[in-house]
Amino acid sequence: MLKLIGFLIILGLATADKCSDCLAQGKHWCVTVNACGFTPCVTTITKALNCPELPDKAHAYDDSFMRNKVLITHSAAYNMDPQKCFTSKMPSMKVSKTVNVNCDRYGPKAMCFSFTAIDTVQKVIAMTFRGTEGAAQLSEEILDFFHGKKAFFDSGSVFEYFYDAFLFQWNGGLQQDLRKLKYQYPDYEIWVTGHSMGGAIASIAASYIVKIGIFTPDKIKLVTLGQPRTGDYAFATWHDATFPYSFRIVHHRDIAAHIPPMEGQDELFHHRTEVWYNNNMTIGQPYQLCAEADGLYCSNRNLDYSGEDHVWYFGINFVEWGQAGCP
């Protein structure tokens, strides 16, 4: 009898050898033993977006590319003259348009900064968004969280403050310039990047230009640093099904990656793919490609958070470095 019971248990586990199939049966996926419905289980998955999945090899993460190319675009956004960073570190990239507009619909004036750039050597268009600057803007972001979310086309909802901030910049000059660059260089890929609040805006921007048909997802590389939660579960689901190349880089205990908090089951949810550096991110340090989207894994395992880790990426305070012109 015991042998029969054991056989039936094994058979039951074998009927759903994939996490998504398992959840579709109304069961949980046990990460501890990689099996469906196994109990007791130390770590379980109950949401499909947290089923283990990594980017395909054609869209693999490259630490060197992030460190030597993408980081420069992030840093440049912290200089009102982004060309200073490019002239210093990536001279083939030329700034096309800068936008500096008030992006707060409800509170006092709060400026958002972004730029577009073109690189005819690397055959790349860049669009980058600066992060939160100053306590006043941060306070407004937090207060505006209570205004709720806005529908994002037919693909879930996104945090209202971030969506508004994007649209203010989009209508403030980004749209016209990006369309011009796309017309001039129709075959170029586009790097969409941003740090902190700028990371959330970059995520919305990349999604928006796909929705309105300016770029197809295969031409977009979306990379963010310290990105806060941006949209709900439905938005994250659409995003993951749409973008083959999307990375959220998180440094160690960066607090921004964990705000705004999840509320309820599906209120706010990160999309993939988190890349977690549980170290000081200097050259040669390891990183973890997180197979789950937003569960109790990778950086979400932290019990304490750091504001300092929010501005130190790849071994430097890249915000101050950018402000100094990337010397």
List descriptors.
327 residues, alpha/beta, Rossmann fold, 8-stranded mixed β-sheet, 3-stranded antiparallel β-sheet, 32% helix, 20% strand, globular, disordered N terminus
Describe it.
This protein has 327 residues and is α/β, with parallel strands linked by helices. It has two domains: 1-46, no CATH class; 50-323, Rossmann fold (3-Layer(aba) Sandwich), CATH 3.40.50.1820. It contains nine helices and 15 strands. The strands form four sheets. An eight-stranded mixed beta sheet has the order 4-5-6-9-10-11-12-13, with helices on both faces. Strands 2-1-3 form a three-stranded antiparallel beta sheet. A two-stranded antiparallel sheet has the order 7-8. β5 and β6 form a beta hairpin. The longest helix is centred in the middle third of the chain and has 25 residues, at 160-184. The protein is globular, with a radius of gyration of 21 Å. The N and C termini lie far apart (74 Å).
Sheet with the most strands?
A: 8 strands, mixed
In terms of quaternary structure, the protein is single chain
Assign a percent range to the helix content.
Answer: 25-40%
Our Rg estimate from Cα atoms comes to 21 Å
Question: What layout of secondary structure does this protein have?
Answer:
Blueprint: H1 2-14, H2 19-24, E1 29-30, E2 35-36, E3 44-45, H3 63-76, H4 83-89, E4 93-102, E5 111-119, E6 124-129, H5 135-144, E7 149-151, E8 157-159, H6 160-184, E9 189-195, H7 197-211, E10 220-225, H8 233-242, E11 246-251, E12 274-277, E13 288-289, E14 312-313, E15 316-317, H9 318-323
Parallel strand pairs: 6-9, 9-10, 10-11, 11-12
Antiparallel strand pairs: 1-2, 1-3, 4-5, 5-6, 7-8, 12-13, 14-15
Helix pairs in contact: 3-4, 6-7
